[in-house]
């Protein structure tokens, strides 16, 4: 028997959460009362392969529609979802339309990474865990997690590996 996907909105955390077994995925958003702006999606390749990402975004879009909100897909995952599901495009904000019109994958110029974020991504690229990166840099694992989260948001990355790929493509890493 296949495990059931459970999807819920956690507005106090600013995210929709999908759970399949012990794995979770999150679609992070800002809600200003008029627009739901998806700025990051954290999801494993396994969950994507199991269709969890599409189901997560489907629920998020249905909720936005129910609440009469516009949608701004400010990360590549949300842009790709809305491109593949044109029935959602009537909810796009003007900024959302601009994001959909950018080059494939939704790449857009974002805030530059800090030196600290780059050094943490170098550790991730080397295959290190947060604890190992923290020891190397003399920081706490929580601080590493926070910097990595900021870097992922700036890069519109879905996960750690995706952040490294984008950072390599944009010349932050060699």
Automatic annotation (TrEMBL):
| Keywords noted in UniProt | DNA-binding, Transcription, Transcription regulation
Span of domain N-acetyltransferase: 8-93
Q: Does the keyword Transcription regulation apply?
A: yes
Source domain of life is Bacteria
A Pfam match: GerE
- Name the InterPro entries for this protein: Acyl_CoA_acyltransferase, GNAT_YJDJ, Sig_transdc_resp-reg_C-effctor, Tscrpt_reg_LuxR_C, WH-like_DNA-bd_sf
UniProt keyword Transmembrane helix, yes or no? no
Domain HTH luxR-type residue range list? 106-171
PANTHER family under this entry? DNA-BINDING TRANSCRIPTIONAL ACTIVATOR DEVR_DOSR (PTHR44688), HTH LUXR-TYPE DOMAIN-CONTAINING PROTEIN (PTHR44688:SF25)
Can you name this protein?
Answer: Regulatory LuxR family protein
Its taxonomic path starts at: Bacteria, Pseudomonadati, Pseudomonadota, Gammaproteobacteria, Lysobacterales
